[in-house]
Amino acid sequence: MAGSESHTVLPRPSFDKPVKVLIVVAPYYRDIADKLLAGAKAEIAAAGATGEVIEVPGALEVPAAIAMADRQSNFDGFVALGCVIRGETTHYETVCNDSSRGLMLLGLQGLAVGNGILTVETRAQAEVRADPGEQDKGGGAAAAALHLIALKRKWGRDRAPVGFRPADEIRLAGDLDGGSTA
User: Among the options 91, 93, 101, 174, which is catalytic?
Assistant: First the structure.
C-alpha cells in the first residue's frame, strides 16, 4: 500500500515578499474536498502566505478557472483540488487525463500550479489521500505551488513594460537622436 511508503519532503520555502495563492476546488465529493482544502490552507498559512478559495463544478473546470484567474488577477500561484473516483464508464479517464493535461499546460506556460486533484479507484483511497492526518495531498499540492513560486522568484527578472507610453512621456522626434528641432 502506498500509505506505508516513505517519501522525501522538501523543506518549506521562505519568502521575503508576500505570497498570494488561489485555491481552486471542485467539491463534487464535498467531504473529500473539505479535507483537501484543510490541508492546503494549513500549508499556505505555515509558509506565511495568504490564500483565497473559489469553487468550480468539477475537475474539468479547474484548469479553466486557473487560466482566467491568471489573466485577470494578481495571484503568485495556484492550488488545484478535487477528486475523481473511477466509475463504470470511460468518463473517468477523460476527466483524469484532461484535467491533468490542462494543469500541466498551465505549468509549462510558467504558472506555479500544485495539482491536488485525486484520481483514485475507490472512495477509501480518496479518504486516506485527502486526510491531513494521513497522506495530506491537499497540503502537498499547496507545498508544490509554494516551491514553484519560490523558483519563479529565484529565476525571475524585471521585464521592460510592453505597450504604448503615455503622450507626456514621449519626446519630440528631434530629441530622440539628440538633435534640435529649432
Answer: 91
